């Protein structure tokens, strides 16, 4: 997966590549054959949700430019795979999932994998995690029409946020960073994600 999908497409950060080599993706995909786990496509994980294509997960991770002192907020725990990748690269990961079944399954898998720096909760991800804010980096793994305002408020000065912005038919992977309490943005590439559901995104 890393050698054939990530490196040839330009993923070059050695820490990111190391995390993708280390985290065993098939352990986070229980309802599909193991042969699908490392394929170059998204995979269903139930509840109408998916685990992202490996390249897109790596691209989002690389653009966040994580360091070992970062506190990261993840919106959309999903299977826990991206959460584990983040935990390999940052100091603490706070992950919010709205679907209880997915959240509990991910927590079980992450605990089995021995991660001590991951904190999860069930709730509306568009509200963020105010009690643990501010965050150095934020990653949203579902498509939003705009960046939820609570998440902008919970992002540190000079912090970065990455997410797919746009409508359900297609979005643009977008990197934002906070400078002088204002947001600046860079468009990265087109993408397709499931919609972000919550008070500051799409209705249920």
Shape: globular
Distance between the termini: 34 Å
The number of E-state strands comes to 9
Low-confidence stretches: none
The figure for the number of domains is: 1
The CATH class: Alpha Beta
Please identify which CATH superfamily we are dealing with: Vaccinia Virus protein VP39
Question: How would you state the average pLDDT, rounded?
Answer: 95
- Percent helix, as a range, is 25-40%
Strand order of the largest sheet: 5-4-3-6-7-8-9
Enter the CATH topology name.
Rossmann fold
Treating each run of at least 4 consecutive H or I residues as one helix, how many helices? 6
Task: Describe the 3D structure.
The protein is an alpha/beta fold and 204 residues long. It has a single domain, classed as Rossmann fold, CATH 3.40.50. It is built from 6 helices and 9 strands. The chain has a 7-stranded mixed sheet. Strands 1-2 form a two-stranded antiparallel ribbon. A hairpin with a 2-residue loop joins strand 7 (155-167) and strand 8 (170-179). The longest helix has 13 residues, at 100-112. The chain is globular and about 45 Å long. The chain starts with a helix and ends in a 13-residue tail after the last strand. The mean pLDDT is 95.
């Amino acid at each position: 997966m890393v050698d054939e999908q990530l490196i040839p497409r330009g993923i070059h950060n050695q820490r990111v590549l190391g995390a993708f080599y280390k985290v065993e993706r098939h352990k986070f995909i229980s309802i599909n054959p193991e042969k699908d786990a490392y394929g170059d496509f998204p995979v269903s994980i139930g509840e109408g949700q998916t685990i992202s294509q490996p390249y897109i997960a790596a691209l989002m991770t690389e653009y966040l430019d994580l360091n070992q002192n970062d506190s990261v907020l993840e919106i959309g725990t999903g299977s826990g795979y991206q959460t584990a990748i983040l935990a390999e690269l940052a100091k603490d990961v706070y992950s919010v999932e709205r679907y209880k079944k997915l959240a509990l399954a991910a927590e079980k898998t992450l605990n089995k994998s021995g991660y001590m720096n991951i904190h999860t909760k069930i709730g509306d991800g568009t509200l963020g995690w105010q009690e643990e804010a501010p965050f150095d980096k934020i990653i949203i793994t579902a498509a939003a029409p705009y960046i939820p305002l609570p998440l902008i408020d919970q992002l540190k000065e000079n912090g970065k946020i990455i997410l797919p912005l746009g409508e359900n038919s297609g979005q643009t992977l977008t990197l934002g960073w906070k400078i002088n309490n204002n947001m600046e943005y860079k468009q990265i590439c087109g993408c397709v994600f499931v919609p972000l559901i919550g008070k500051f995104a799409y209705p249920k």
